[in-house]
Amino acid sequence: MSLSEYNMEKENLSVVLHSQGDLRLEQRPIPEPGPNEVLLQMHSVGICGSDVHYWQNGRIGDFVVKKPMVLGHEAAGRVVKVGSAVKNLKEGDRVAVEPGVPREMDEFFKSGNYNLSPTIFFCATPPDDGNLCRFYKHSANFCYKLPDNVTYEEGALIEPLSVGIHACRRAGVTLGSSVLICGAGPIGLVCLLVAKAMGASQVVISDLSADRLVMAKELGADFPLTVKRGDGPEELAKRVEGMLGAQPHITIECTGVESSVQTAIYATRPGGVVVLVGLGAAMTTIPLLNAALREVDIRGVFRYCNTWPMAIAMLASKKVNVAPLVTHRFPLEQAVQAFETTRQGQGVKIMLKCDKTDQNP
């Protein structure tokens, strides 16, 4: 579609959260890109647990929805207009969107940890609008060109995949690592894919849901571990050790559930690393002395940085296959139904298709 064609349509259907529980589809103006920005016709946008959490609760921690906000931050689209100073992209380029854009060149930016910059812009984190809409403008430096053999949906999945890359880097996953992953939701599954691609020799993955563990097995998990509510953390840690024949070097905790964080610490071998990816209660009781006396490092993860180039290379070379994660697709017009499906915990990754003329992956 040419610029003039869509300007005539003046249609920018957007998924807007007004307040807790109040999700609406509404028309917004098509934005005009600044000198360093591009205007994208959005194609595929995944629904994340955080989008649903904002809808259901109106906040995540200190981030509170105070004014209407467009949701969506797992996205890929096509460049339809280019800002005057943009050199890296042209009209028609297919791109994946990195949703976190630093607003200033502070110490975090300079040290390469721009995800930690307190003033960063981030799609669909109050008060910043996301990209679950027909047309969206974004910093050209944070739009990455997709190779021809990588689909728009795979491009949108680079966002969750990046969480896995950042978590595995923070954990130090390398050739021969043994890894426990707690939780087989979308983030647990991308951590599994990345850990395997980075050389992990054996991966145990745990979840309450047998269905999710079936998918985990198909994606390369060596040992699926079914957890029941009420299982003791120390007992679960022993089961993990029994499966591997030794305690894992690394545990990646993706649930945020207190008992699961406790399991992660008990399960990890002395001198090993626990990485906390899942978000739980602000105050969590953990066996800190156990970790301290065994020199188990506990590391936090906040989103990601410098991951899109690696993710694109992994997808283009077919070292990582994220396509099976998409279990449901909805046109943008059915966004509320798609959100309801996600809230009910159906499937793994639900994808919204924003381009009326192209609903393909």
UniProtKB/TrEMBL annotation:
Keywords assigned: Metal-binding, Oxidoreductase, Zinc
Signal sequence interval, chain numbering: none
Domain (Enoyl reductase (ER)) ranges: 21-352
Record keyword Repressor present: no
Gene Ontology process terms (BP): sorbitol catabolic process
Similarity field: Belongs to the zinc-containing alcohol dehydrogenase family.
Superkingdom of the source species: Eukaryota
Annotated Pfam families: ADH_N, ADH_zinc_N
Gene Ontology molecular function: L-iditol 2-dehydrogenase (NAD+) activity; zinc ion binding
CDD domains noted in UniProt: sorbitol_DH (cd05285)
UniProt cross-references to SMART domains, sorted A to Z: PKS_ER
Designated name of the protein: Sorbitol dehydrogenase
Organism of origin: Salmo trutta
GO CC list: motile cilium
Necessary cofactors: Zn(2+)
Gene3D superfamilies: Medium-chain alcohol dehydrogenases, catalytic domain, NAD(P)-binding Rossmann-like Domain
